[in-house]
Amino acid sequence: MKKIFLLVILIIFSLVALYYYKPVIINYFFGIARILKQENGYQLDINNKKHDNCVFKSTESFDKKRKHNFLILYLRDLDIKSNFEIIVVNLDEKVVGYTCGSFDCYDKVFGSLFQSDMGSFYTPLEDDAKGPGFDTQLKMENKKIDFYIPSERKERLHILLSKK
Questions:
Q1: DSSP string across 67-114
Q2: Please, are residues 117 and 107 in contact by the beta-carbon 8 Å criterion?
Q3: Parallel, antiparallel, or unpaired: how do β-strands 67-74 and 55-60 relate?
Q4: What pTM did the predictor assign?
């Protein structure tokens, strides 16, 4: 009986710790988060410095009612100075946006990117009303996607996505 009681206490403690450190995983178990697939077909360069394992693909809305073509750039683990850690490139509408940057919305666990239902929405960077009104100067060519995002020091970070 003591072993069962200790096991229950251990499970409860583990779930509380998991919720505290990686809350999006708990959301995944309840069906309000999903895992995005890594997009290996693109090379990410930020200010001419290459970064790997940062580009993910989203092809449908969270409720699976609409198809879309988004690239999700997970910049949280990189040493860049920007308030925008998660960038969405909408390839269909040719728009660059940002999403909820909290760990409840996006988190990377063992190389997999978890996205909550709230994290599936984005705000265009060029939107004056809801966003910062930043001109991304987005250019989409055959094999390159070229744009800028704001940095913390009122500068611009140059983002280049090249198809491999």
A1: EEEEEEEE-TTS----S--EEEEETTTTEEEEE--STTTEEEETTEEE
A2: no
A3: antiparallel
A4: 0.85
- Amino acid identity for residue 16 in this structure: V
Q: What is the pLDDT of residues 98-110, one digit of tens each?
A: 998 777 788 888 8
Q: 32-70 b/e with 16+ CB inside 10 Å = b?
A: ebbebebbeebebbbeeeebeebbbbbeeebeeeeeeeb
Supply 97's token pair.
């946006």
Task: Encode 81-108: b = buried (16+ Cβ within 10 Å), e = exposed.
Answer: ebebbbbbbbeeeebbbbbbeeebbbbb
**What residues are paired with 37 via a beta bridge?**
57
Lateral strand order in the sheet of 55-60: 106-109, 112-116, 33-38, 55-60, 67-74, 86-90, 95-99, 122-124
Residue showing tokens 């995944």: 28
> Over the range 130-149, which residues count as b (16 or more CB within 10 Å of their CB) and which as e?
ebeebebebeeeeeebbbbb
Residue that has been written with the tokens 């583990």 in this structure: 14
pLDDT digits 0-9 by tens, 108-147: 888 889 999 888 889 999 988 888 888 999 999 989 999 9
